[in-house]
Design brief:
Blueprint: H1 4-11, E1 28-32, E2 35-38, E3 43-46, H2 49-52, H3 61-73, H4 85-97, E4 104-108, H5 111-128, E5 135-139, H6 148-152, E6 171-173, H7 181-191, E7 196-201, E8 205-206, E9 212-213, H8 216-228, E10 232-236, E11 260-263, E12 275-279, H9 281-285, H10 306-320, H11 322-342, E13 348-354, E14 357-362, H12 374-384, E15 387-388, E16 395-398, H13 406-422
Parallel strand pairs: 3-15, 5-6, 5-7, 7-10, 10-11
Antiparallel strand pairs: 1-2, 2-3, 4-12, 8-9, 11-12, 13-14, 14-16
Helix pairs in contact: 3-10, 4-10, 7-8, 11-13
Bound molecules: pyridoxal-5'-phosphate.
Length: about 425
């Protein structure tokens, strides 16, 4: 059995995949820039940054060099009672680019866990103050990850159904999309009480829930309402962080800054698994005590892995270069020009864009109703044309690496235009 796909099928269980009906997986053997190369010599344009993580293209030589150097210096060390240079440098540098009210960095190793830690910090903050609060407010259709706490604060769906009995209760606010602001504000006025420990949001763009977008001004108002009752605010920037929205963080669009921020995905430029939860001094201070029971008892074997921290430092060097910042603006502009053209098609609805993120809903044409499998139709149509995109139901979106060229974007836009003319 030399065929990689066959060997895979014999031993591997893939994420979010019904293994009985799943198509044969595509074997990728190499990547460069925005292109993935398959075992059968096909090229795929990675227009979703491989599950939204890859900021600077695949196998970036600078990140590769930095990680390989680090590998020969120190690959890992326990992070309780010990520290190491890359973890400290990364924390220092993150704090220079995050909202100024953030003052401490807690490491973990993925986005779900970065959310779990934020929730545990919030609950224990109130516990340590001797004023326990139990409620959490979240947005409908939110996605914060697949571990239990992260699932609990996400919207309930087919994905969470088997686990619902085990998830703690959360109060949901409708997403304040254009036109819904007043309704949401009224609901918020009743939900935010002094029992609410935390309000958790994906700021400005809800990712997995369908790339739903809303304005900073309404989020500022909701944050103000939450604050009036002392609730902590958690910004889950796992997807929106590191330039995706056109600014370094979605929180940079806001006047009211979150108390806690969760980061992962783009953190290492898509190279290694790493998560970070950041918090204000006030939250950190609530855990300082002679009483050992006020400690945050949370940690992972690979906390602050030096290779992952090095990848994050290298990715940050690249991200902050003028050239990359210009690319982010260039892609945003290309997206916005394409969005204007897309508006002409009756099979396209609710076009939305924030920075390098462009999304719209597909609506099947009248003659042919593919609605039930419009997702698969779109996915395969684009894949056949060497473009990797992964629609969320009928929502098609682009979240390309920042090195994607105008030619690559133009080719993608052209194929999307053909798709929306076909369905
Ligand atoms: C992907 C995602 C997560 C979960 O991150 P994982 O690394 O996949 O566990 C959490 N929140 C948001 C907003 C995400 O997009």
């Amino acid at each position: 059995m030399n065929n990689l796909a066959e060997r895979d099928r014999a031993v591997i269980w893939h994420p979010f995949t019904q293994m009985q009906t799943a198509p044969v997986p595509i074997s990728i053997v190499r990547g460069q820039g925005s292109v993935l190369y398959s075992a059968d010599d096909r090229e795929y344009l990675d227009m979703i940054s491989s599950w939204w993580v890859n900021l600077h293209g695949h196998a970036h030589p600078y990140i590769a060099q930095r990680v390989s150097e680090q590998l020969q210096i120190l690959e890992h060390v326990i992070f309780a009672d010990f520290t190491h240079p890359t973890a400290v440098e990364l924390a220092e540098r993150l704090l220079t680019i995050l909202p100024q009210n953030q003052s401490k960095i807690f490491y973990s190793d993925n986005g779900s866990t970065a959310v779990e830690v934020a929730l545990k910090m919030a609950f224990q903050y109130w516990h340590n103050l001797g004023k326990p609060r139990r409620k959490v407010v979240a947005f409908e259709n939110a996605y914060h990850g697949d571990t239990f706490g992260a699932m609990a604060v996400g919207g309930r769906s087919a994905f969470t159904a088997p686990f619902v009995p085990f998830l703690f209760d959360v109060e949901y606010l409708p997403v304040p999309v254009a036109g819904q602001e007043e309704v949401v504000l009224q609901r918020a006025a009743t939900l935010f009480t002094d029992e609410v420990a935390a309000f958790i949001v994906e700021p400005l763009v809800q990712g997995a829930g369908g790339m739903t977008m809303y304005e900073p001004s309404i989020l500022d108002k909701l944050f103000q309402l939450a604050r009036q009752n002392g609730s902590l605010i958690i910004a889950d920037e796992v997807m929106t962080g590191f330039g995706r929205t056109g600014r370094l963080f979605a929180s940079d669009y806001l006047q009211e800054k979150p108390d806690l921020i969760s980061l992962s995905k783009g953190l290492t430029g898509g190279t290694m698994a790493l998560g970070v939860t950041t918090c204000t001094q006030a939250i950190y201070d609530a855990f300082l005590s002679d009483d050992k029971f006020k400690t945050l008892f949370h940690g992972h074997s690979f906390t602050a892995n030096p290779l992952a921290c090095t990848a994050a430092l290298a990715s940050m060097d690249l991200l902050l270069m003028d050239e990359t910042q210009a690319s982010i603006q260039r892609i945003s502009q290309q997206h916005s020009d394409f969005a204007n053209q897309l508006a002409a098609y009756s099979t396209v609805e609710t076009i939305r864009q924030r920075g390098t993120l462009l999304a719209f809903d597909l609506k099947a044409g009248e003659q042919r109703s593919y609605f039930n499998n419009i997702r698969d139709t779109a996915y395969n149509f684009l894949l056949d044309r060497n473009i990797l995109m992964r629609p969320l139901g009928n929502v098609l979106y682009l979240i390309p690496p920042y090195c994607t060229t105008n030619e690559q974007l133009a080719y993608t836009y052209e194929q999307i235009t053909k798709l929306v003319q076909t369905i």
